[in-house]
Amino acid sequence: MPLLLLILLASVVVYLWLARRGSTVTRACRWRLDRSGGPEHYRCAACGAETDGRPRHCLRAR
Description:
Helix content is 32%, strand content 16%. It has 62 residues and is α+β, with helices and mostly antiparallel strands.
């Protein structure tokens, strides 16, 4: 039983690491779907950046 729990914990950690690996979106990014710009138009509530399609990177102007 403890071995099964260790395997489950390890698999969850690996999944979370793989899911986050390709994204640079930070906690400061607050992407909201804005349908007034189109069906896949997103706007960041924190900085005002806009994009078409689901964002995977922070688009904040440096």
